[in-house]
Amino acid sequence: MKRHCKWMALSLVMAGAQCASALYAQGGNTSEAPAVQPPPAATPAAAAPAPHAKPHLPIKARTHEEYVAYQTAIANKQDAEAMAKAAADFAAKFPDSDCRILLYRATMKAYRTAADPEKMMESALKVLELDNDDPEALLSLAEVQEEHTTAMDLDRDQRMSQALDNAQHALKTIDTDLIVPVGTAADRVEVYKKYLKASALGIIGTVQYKQEKYPEAEVSLRQAIEADPANVDSVIVLRLALSLDEQKKYEDALTQANRAIELSKDGTEVARVAKNERDRLTALVAQGSAAGGSDVAPPADDSSQGHKGN
Fold first, then answer.
1. CA–CA gap between residue 98 and residue 107 (Å, rounded)
2. What was the pLDDT predicted at 277?
3. N or C: which end of the chain has fewer CB within 10 A?
4. Using a CB cutoff of 8 Å and minimum separation of 24, what contacts does 222-228 make?
5. Residue 43, SS3 per DSSP
6. How far is CA 21 from each of CA 16, 90, 146, 173, 304, rounded to the nearest angstrom?
7. Which residue, 131, 136, 139, is CA-closest to 162?
8. Residue 277 to residue 300: CA distance in whole angstroms
9. pTM of this prediction?
């Protein structure tokens, strides 16, 4: 029962915060629709790549017709369904084009904006069919696997393991396989990479928390905060507080809970849970001081403890 309540409360926090669902929103423009270079003039079309070969960078259209078709398709990126259809039509007409991956990535991001995780995951899988090291697709997949798995799912352990593997894989490929628009300033790319690394570590830490591996979760969540210190996420800080709480590191947990409150917006689910956690920890720290520093906590009331969920 305790484990079930923990997962349920975590789901409530994520539904209210929409933190992971806004993944890449901060830096998404950096790589949303990388510019495709037009084909060189008077150059014969390149040979078709081997099946499942990674796209050649920078991505180029091989013919003028392909270039025009890509520009027409990518113009639909604000409408998820239209973007998905345009990507499918383009892929049918140019089945060997490197540009397909850009259209699938645009579709993936359009479905993210539309809050359609299942279709976002389908698009991410299409990206990974063409490049299994694409960090944004790996993180999109890990995000859905982590966010939309509950304690009641029979395959939860498998899905959590897959989410962990995908996030760890992404962490290794962010520096080497991130596709960005041609001509993007190096400093903007670095800012976006920091954001993606923090997101990957945040997913890793959340999975470890759900697996009740609290010391490991603490390490990963601290690394997530350190990875992008200019853009600290209140949800990640709250999760860190919860991981510390589970280890009975109450004073440190209280510090992080207060920080989560400072970073969150009033009226949000994150703020509510963070305040509940602060109140609980304040009582525990005071109790511990009165008892001469005892680490023994009173029985938790799962029906009222927001800390059991993130």
1. 15
2. 97
3. N
4. 224/198, 224/199, 225/198, 227/194, 227/197, 227/198, 227/201, 228/194, 228/195, 228/197, 228/198
5. coil
6. 11, 28, 11, 21, 26
7. 139
8. 12
9. 0.79
Q: Is the dihedral of CA 127, 132, 133, 137 positive or negative?
A: positive
* The predicted structure's pLDDT at residue 40: 54
3-state secondary structure at position 60: strand
Q: Distance between CA atoms of 49 and 51, rounded to whole angstroms?
A: 6
- Establish whether the linkage from the previous residue to 38 is cis, with ω within 30° of 0: no
pLDDT for 42 equals 41
Strand partners, 60: 37
Query: What interhelical angle do 234-246 and 186-210 show, nearest 10?
Result: 30
Asked if 24 and 195 count as a contact pair (C-beta separation under 8 A), the reply is yes
Cα maximum dimension of the chain: 84
Alpha-carbon distance of 56 to 130, in angstroms, equals: 11
DSSP 251-292: HHHHHHHHHHHHHSPTTSHHHHHHHHHHHHHHHHHHHHHHTT
Q: Which residue type, as a one-letter code, is found at position 117?
A: P
Low-confidence ranges of the chain (pLDDT < 50): 1-5, 7-9, 12, 14-28, 31-33, 41-51, 294, 296, 299-310
Q: Which of 173, 222, 179 is nearest to 202 (CA)?
A: 222
**Distance (Å, whole) CA 146 – CA 135:** 16
Please give the Cα distance from 196 to 172 (Å, whole number): 11
Q: What is the DSSP letter of 32?
A: S
Distances (CA, A) of 184 to 31, 108, 179, 270: 9, 21, 10, 34
Burial 41-80 (b: 16+ CB within 10 A, else e): eeeeeeeeeeeeeebeeebbbbbeebbebbeebbebbeeb
* Token pair of 213 as six digits: 């591996």
